[in-house]
Write a structure and sequence with these properties.
Helices cover 34% and strands 23% of the residues. A hairpin with a 5-residue loop joins strand 9 (198-199) and strand 10 (205-206). The longest helix has 16 residues, at 381-396. The chain has helices at residues 17-29, 48-55, 66-71, 74-79, 91-99, 105-112, 125-129, 131-142, 168-178, 213-224, 252-262, 305-310, 330-341, 381-396; strands at 6-11, 33-38, 83-89, 117-121, 146-147, 151-154, 160-164, 188-193, 198-199, 205-206, 228-233, 245-248, 267-270, 277-279, 299-301, 319-326, 345-350, 362-363, 365-369, 372-375, 379-380. Helix 1 runs parallel beside helix 2 and helix 9 packs across helix 14 (381-396). It has 2 domains: 6-178, 3-Layer(aba) Sandwich (Rossmann fold), CATH 3.40.50.1950; 188-396, Rossmann fold, CATH 3.40.50.10300. The relative contact order is 0.10. By secondary structure, the chain is of the alpha/beta class. Bound molecules: cytidine-5'-monophosphate. Residues 192, 252, 270, 272, 274, 302-306, 322-324 line the site of cytidine-5'-monophosphate.
Length: 397
């Protein structure tokens, strides 16, 4: 998927440098060629020998290495790449980048390059939150640098918070996006989105607060990676993306029928907030108000589309993804849900009112798979969608 792409990997001097070894493997597995450059501090954490062995290429360390200058000048080194990736990007390296310093090989390459630059910050939570780092980050963003992570979690220094370097696969996903590939060309995916409306009578219905924003963003991100997308949407607030095969439904029963009819597919993403129940014997005519008497509604359980598709014996998509909107104990509930439904991944999020996620523009999700739970940083719903789409591409291709 990264075949033919050359990545100049600049490894900064932080404890997360050990993850660069795995990152190199992951990039190469996907066909990328990796030219590693280590800062002097990085060599305190990982050796140039292990880095070169994994990269299958010399690990560059020194600006004044004349042999290297004879082989390939530093300007040339900075230009041959399709992407310059800085991982880990330490607070110091970010500061030097933001200042435009060129006092070692890494920063000289970063100043001389005309290719896109991406950083994966990694540092102690206080350093990450320090106004100087916030300032440097905003300067780098203005300069066009893209940022992946950092994640929130336990840190090597014993503290907790944002500052952990993004996981290697997250960085790979971000690199795929940055390189603008269409790795999903030739695949067919189903995405469900929005709420469902369960009628009580022709004018009244039961619904929920889902806006359809996250599902719509996912469909758009999958399209941009080249997939054919069947978009099955309930009555959402946001317009469906251009270019999908659009199927509009109202109820859960209609949504199920549309999904079944859209199979087979390579993957299915169930982002819809499907109503759990429908009203039995919804009236064909408007129920009249009768003073002093109240209608009694009887409910039946709706089909669980995610569970049904996950458990198909024949024609199950290779990758089935569900969502879990929880208000407490998010990871435990979502992990249990993954097992109960039989899907491959669960995208879990905390929708407690104080998070502002439901109906908002941002989301903070944890991706639960057979490999465990991966907490992504809080970001726009579009960014969550792009990262998820890249991860889907990575799993399918
Ligand atoms: O069961 P619960 O609603 O908690 O699970 C949420 C996940 O299940 C979402 O991915 C949602 O799209 C899917 N779902 C479904 N059909 C239902 C209920 C939920 O596909 N009837």
């Amino acid at each position: 998927m990264l075949r033919g792409k050359r990545i100049l990997l600049i490894i900064g001097g932080g404890i997360a440098a050990y993850k660069s070894l795995d990152l190199i493997r992951r990039l190469r597995e996907r066909g990328a060629e990796v030219t590693p450059v280590l800062t002097r501090a990085a060599t305190e954490f990982v050796t140039p020998l292990s880095i070169s062995a994994l990269a299958g290429e010399k690990g560059y360390t020194d600006l004044f290495d004349l042999t290297d200058e004879a082989e390939m000048g530093h300007i040339q080194l900075s230009r041959v790449a399709d992407l310059v990736l800085v991982a880990p990007a330490t607070a110091d390296l970010m500061a030097r980048m933001a200042q435009g310093l060129a006092n070692d090989l890494a920063t000289t390459l970063l100043l001389a390059t005309d290719t896109p630059v991406m950083i994966a910050p990694s540092m102690n939570v206080r350093m990450w939150e320090h106004p100087a780092t916030r300032r440097n980050l905003s300067v780098l963003r203005q300069d066009g640098v893209t940022v992946v992570g950092p994640n929130e979690g336990d840190m090597a220094c014993g503290e907790y918070g944002p500052g952990r370097m993004a996981e290697p696969l997250q960085i790979v996903d971000a690199a795929i996006m940055a390189l603008g590939d269409t790795p999903l060309a030739g695949t067919r995916l189903i995405v469900t989105s929005g709420p469902t409306h369960e009628p009580i009578d022709p004018v009244r219905y039961i619904a929920n607060r889902s806006s359809g924003a996250q599902g719509t963003a996912i469909a758009a991100a999958l399209l941009s990676l080249g997939a054919e997308v069947v978009f099955v949407t309930g009555p959402a607030d946001v317009a469906p993306p251009q270019g999908v095969e659009l199927i509009r439904v109202d109820t859960a029963v209609e949504m199920r029928a549309a999904v079944m009819a859209a199979l087979p597919a390579d993957a299915a993403v169930f982002a819809a907030a499907v109503a759990d129940w429908r009203v039995v014997g919804a009236s064909d005519s408007k129920i009249k108000k009768v003073s002093g008497s109240f209608p009694t509604l009887e409910f039946a359980e709706n089909p669980d589309i995610l569970a049904e598709v996950s458990q198909l014996e024949q024609g199950r998509p290779g990758l089935v993804i569900g969502f879990a909107a929880e208000t407490d104990d998010v990871i435990a509930h979502a992990t249990a849900k993954r097992a109960r439904k039989g899907c491959d991944w669960i995208v879990a999020n905390n929708v407690s009112p104080e998070t502002g996620i439901m109906g908002g523009t941002e989301n903070r999700v944890t991706l639960i798979s057979a490999q465990g739970a991966e907490a992504w940083p809080r970001m726009g719903k579009d960014a969550v969608a792009r990262q998820l789409a890249a991860r889907i591409a990575d799993a399918l291709v």
